[in-house]
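Hi X.,

You mentioned you wanted examples for the new student's onboarding notes, showing what a folding record looks like when two proteins sit in one file. Here is a clean example. The first protein comes first, with its sequence line followed by its structure tokens.
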Amino acid sequence: MPNHITLRDFIAKLKQAGRDCTLLGVGPVSEVVVRAAFQACARHNCPPIFIASRNQVDLKRLGHGYLMGGMDQKTFVAFLKRLEQESAYRGTVFICRDHGGPWQRDAELKAKLPAAQAMAIARRSFRADIAAGFNYLHIDPTKCPHRHTQEQLVQWTVELLAYCETVRRRLGLDAIDYEVGTEDIQGGLTTAETYESFLKKLTARLTKAHLPLPTCVVGQTGTLCKLDRNVGRFDAQGTARLVKIAARYGVGFKEHNGDYLAAAICRAHPGLGITGMNVAPEFGLVETEALLALADLETKLVRAGRLREKKASHLRQLLLEKTFTGTPWKKWMTAEISKRAPAQIKADNALRLLIARVCGHYTYADPAIRSARKRLYANLGRCRCFPKPGANSADDFVLGKVRAQIEFYIRHLAMADTNAILQDG
């Protein structure tokens, strides 16, 4: 898994080559999504950029993550290396920590940990990131559940970035990239005044301390993911102002909550100068929808007498049950839905299906789900449900759906063939 260039240098080379593009950060919500990303990037000759949150991947003693049943940083990097070798992709891979920092695990935020304790935990997590081989770190203290000022956000950001640089140098590692934020991402548009004030304070502090500037600074563009759609409204003019401010301070502009955006909006991103955009839950939803489609096909086989009921996987019902009882589904619902009585939600079949579609990826490591998925694939294979029968036909169907959605963003964000600048240089 070679990585001979920082993302900052990669972006600089793109600009020198006159390539306007927005780099896609892929949330590694499942093994299928990671495999699909490697395949898509191999097809389009562009670098895979994986953005792992602390809820997905973290130290076991900090609670590990939900990915693959509990991955820490070392296991995650080894996992990426294995899937890269199994793919046709050969080139630079960016392994990124998304929303690293204090209070970024749901449990830490719910407990409202004191700042000193949350910062200590963040340092342990970042140290493990760097030692494992992460090469891009998002330092984000903006979820602070206590009253705080912008000055405190700057202070915490500088402290953590300085700590990460100390660890990196101590381990003798090459330069890595950093990403920072101005405010907790809750939708709406970051104001130009807030954005510039934060950047002015931060860059002055970093320069004085002889620390590297961040590669990207997050700004809110109006987007917000809830349910199975983007409930926000992308503000092109406001975003353009934020991009220009970031450029004045020598940093790139990063957008989160890019899921479910229309093709036309995505195509506008490179021209607006948006450096990067993250997409995560949408890819999990696409995978779950593919599984549900296969489960519905299995049900048709039972009704047609081609498959005995007791041999069926019952994956659909399992997903409905497991997502409702064992996932953080409320954080993806609108406030109106979250306020409804639990019994009312439980009895609403349409809403239960929506929760399953949105949060299915949290359950993929559950033993019952894994067993049902395996049985589903076997049943469809035995019934010859695919044009090219084979042991992996159902898996290929699901993988293809996710890969197609990743390729949608690669195309519309103009990422295709961006690796050529490294091959030419």
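Then the second protein repeats the pattern, sequence line and then tokens:
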Amino acid sequence: MLEEEATVFSVDTEWVWVETLRNSACGRCAARAGCGQPLMARVLGAGRSAAHSRLPVAWPESGLRPSVGTRVVIGIPESSFLRLAFMLYLLPVLALLFGALGAHLLSGQDMVAMLAAVAAFALSLLWVRRWQHGWQRDPRWQPRLLRLVPDPGPGNNHPAEAVKVL
């Protein structure tokens, strides 16, 4: 299960609306020195490196009832995430490649292969967009409310720090 902390900003009878803060992954990446993302973050400014996402989460069957302002943990199964990533990223690229290869084998002309590749890519994007409407109604693709984040209490206002021992 892929998990993320979020803050509840609205509650209604059907959904719990949560807001997550997307941070840049550069602090956790080993290749940050050879990547252009930190440079882009510096050029665009610090305020552009983090953004808020708001999304609905269905009420859990467990009876967990958070109120507005509560910190919660939401999650999505890895299998769902991998299927979505395949459909969104790999399927259009495969359609482009197979469209070009198939048209080139059938016609032998580069221009026909290029046009077929563009057409196959566009059709795959349209198919993914149409399939996306089904994702929004299917509970397998929806994030789940897993648990509440415990309140640190009055004496523990600072975040925990990791210490490296040699």
